[in-house]
Design goal:
single chain, about 375 residues, alpha+beta, Elongation Factor Tu (Ef-tu), domain 3, about 20% helix, globular
C-alpha cells in the first residue's frame, strides 16, 4: 500500500512531543481528534513483543480533554452517559459510554472526577465538546465547557511500575487501577492516573505544563535505559488480543452499548437521568440483533483499512469484520466483528475475502487473551 505524507496545519495539530518522537523514529501517523497520533515506530510486531516485556512511552496527546465545571457539571456529565455516576468519587476514573437520544454511541471516554463541580472527559476520537455544549445550551445548565491545554503521555508495559517508582517514589506504585493523584516533577504537579490503552499495565500523565512535561519526557527516557525503554504507541495487535475497542473502528454511532458488550456500564434501573434511557430500556426488552464478537482465521497476514463482509456457507452476509491483525500469540489472524444474532455463537463458521482469497474462519469470544 502506497504511503502519503500528512500536511500539518493549524487544524491538524502536532503535540508538544512531536519533535521528540520524530527524532526517535516514528514511521507512521494516524489522525485522532484533529491531531497527529503516532501509529508505528517500525515493525508493529516488534513493538508488540517489546511492549509485553519492557516499557514504552507513548505520545497520546490526541486523547483530548473536555473540561466541564460549574454547579450543573455533574448533571451534564450524567446526562451524556448511561453509566450511573451518582456515587462517583474524587480522584477516580470511570469508563463511560456516551450516547445520544437514540442510544447510539457518541464516544467511549474515560471520565475523571476532579471534584463534584469539575470533570475531565478524556476522549476517544469524536467531537464530544460540541455535543456537550449543545446539551448545556438546550438545558440551560450553569456550566463552563472548554478544552484545557492537557497533553497526555502514557507509560505502558510491565516495567512501567519500576520506572515510575524510580521517579515518583512508593506512592505511585500503590495507586489503584483507574485511580489518580498529583505528583511533583520539575516544580510542577502532574495529574497521573493508573490507566492506559493496553492490558500490560501502566500510567497516563496528564501534562498541563509543557516545559516541565518535556523535561519529564526526556528524564523518563534517560533513567529508563535500564528497563529497555523505547518510544511506542497504541499497538494494534496487543489491543485486539486484549479486546480493547477503538471508537470509529470497532464501534460507532450506529451501535448501542448492549451491542458493544457494555452491559455493565448501562444503568437503566437507577434513578439517574441520562439521554437515551428509555430507548435502552426498549432495546433491552426486545433484545439486540447484533453483537461484537471475535473471529479467527487460519492465515498469517491481513491488511484492512475499512470493513469486510463476513458470510455463511450460502454466501449470506452475517457480519462485518471491523478490525483485524496477525496475532503472534495465536499464529493466526484475529479480528473484532459485529455479528448478526444468527451467527454470533462461538465456533460458528464464517467466510471472508482476504488478500484476494476466500478464507474460512470461526467466531470466538472477546477478549482473545
Amino acid at each position: 500500500m502506497k504511503s502519503f505524507s500528512i500536511a500539518k496545519s493549524r487544524r491538524l495539530r502536532g503535540t508538544p512531543y512531536t519533535s521528540r518522537i520524530e527524532k526517535q523514529g516514528v514511521t507512521a501517523y494516524t489522525i485522532y481528534n484533529h491531531m497527529l497520533l503516532p501509529a508505528a515506530f517500525g515493525s508493529i510486531e516488534d513493538s508488540y513483543h517489546h511492549l509485553k516485556q519492557y516499557v514504552q512511552i507513548w505520545d497520546v496527546a490526541a486523547e483530548r480533554q473536555v473540561e466541564i465545571s460549574g454547579k450543573d457539571s455533574a448533571k451534564l456529565v450524567q446526562l451524556m452517559t448511561c453509566r450511573d455516576l451518582s456515587k462517583s468519587k474524587d480522584g477516580r476514573c470511570y469508563y463511560c459510554p456516551i450516547i445520544d437520544d437514540n442510544a447510539g454511541l457518541i464516544n467511549d471516554p474515560v471520565v475523571l472526577r476532579l471534584n463534584e463541580n469539575k470533570w475531565w472527559v478524556s476522549l476517544a476520537d469524536s467531537d464530544v465538546i460540541l455535543f456537550a455544549k449543545g446539551l448545556a445550551i438546550g438545558n440551560k445548565f450553569d456550566v463552563k465547557i472548554f478544552e484545557p491545554d492537557v497533553d497526555i503521555m502514557a507509560i505502558q508495559g510491565p516495567k512501567s511500575f519500576e520506572l515510575m517508582e524510580k521517579v515518583f517514589g512508593d506512592k505511585i506504585v500503590n495507586l489503584k487501577f483507574f485511580g489518580f493523584d498529583y505528583f511533583e516533577f520539575g516544580g510542577d504537579k502532574h495529574l497521573i492516573a493508573r490507566s492506559g490503552w493496553s492490558k500490560q499495565g501502566g500510567y497516563e500523565i496528564y501534562v498541563e505544563h509543557n516545559v516541565s512535561g518535556l523535561k519529564l519526557y526526556d528524564h523518563l527516557f534517560e533513567i529508563g535505559k535500564e528497563f529497555n525503554i523505547k518510544p511506542g504507541c497504541p499497538n494494534l495487535i496487543e489491543r485486539i488480543e486484549s479486546g480493547l475497542l477503538s471508537y470509529g473502528n470497532d464501534i460507532d454511532n450506529g451501535d448501542n452499548p448492549y451491542e458493544c458488550r457494555f452491559d455493565k456500564y448501562v444503568n437503566i434501573d437507577s434513578e439517574v437521568n441520562f439521554l437515551g434511557k428509555e430507548k435502552l430500556k426498549k432495546i433491552k426488552s426486545e433484545g439486540i440483533k447484533k453483537k461484537l464478537m471475535g473471529v479467527m482465521f487460519d492465515i498469517d497476514k491481513i491488511s484492512i483499512t475499512g470493513s469486510l463482509d463476513l458470510s455463511d456457507q450460502d454466501n449470506n452476509i452475517i457480519g462485518e469484520l471491523r478490525s483485524a491483525c496477525y496475532s503472534p500469540h495465536f499464529k493466526k489472524v484475529i479480528g473484532i466483528a459485529m455479528m448478526k444474532k444468527s451467527h454470533w455463537n462461538i465456533d460458528q463458521n464464517v467466510k471472508a475475502s482476504i488478500n484476494g482469497d476466500i478464507c474460512s474462519g470461526k467466531v470466538c469470544d472477546l477478549p482473545f487473551i
